[in-house]
Amino acid sequence: MTRTGSTTPTDSPTATVVPRPGLRDRLRRDRYLLSLVLWLDDDYPSAQRRALVAQLRGELDAAAADTSMREAVRSLGPARRLAAEYSELLDPARPRWGLGAAAVSAWLLLCLAAAAVFASALWQVAPAGGVEGVTARLLWAELTVVRTAQESSVAAASGFPWTLLVALVVFVVAARAWRAVPALRRSSDES
Predict the structure, then answer these.
(1) pTM of the prediction?
(2) How far apart are CA 136 and CA 105, in angstroms?
């Protein structure tokens, strides 16, 4: 059971108890809250997101006790709009870790796709290279493909992990990671 309000020494000993909603109402409430969580920005702080969901769950249960869960959910409006309103309340100068992770994922997938297409092209011409295979350079990586009756192989060599260094730079820029450093945040707020 969920209690509304807080109990203090001046409260009466019989606090208001909100009845537990039925299964259909709980499903309706939880579907709305899940939709809200999905629409919230990935960078919305998880502790605040959990607190928000817990608060809304209690408020929906209390409102549903007076009317119905359908009306309580409808009174909040579309989950997408409510999520946008809550996201606007966040500090715009915060780092955006989720955006940085998405940008790095996109970069690494692009590198993987380029390497796969390049290796496929080398695979087509590898029989002409004989037992030594064919070797070619793709940016900072060197690929060697051998395709004979006795051996089929693809090998990659790279001196310095440029792909990872570029991924780190992409993450820092996309996430605006410098905003996590208080001294840098103050100097950017002043300008």
Answers:
(1) 0.53
(2) 26
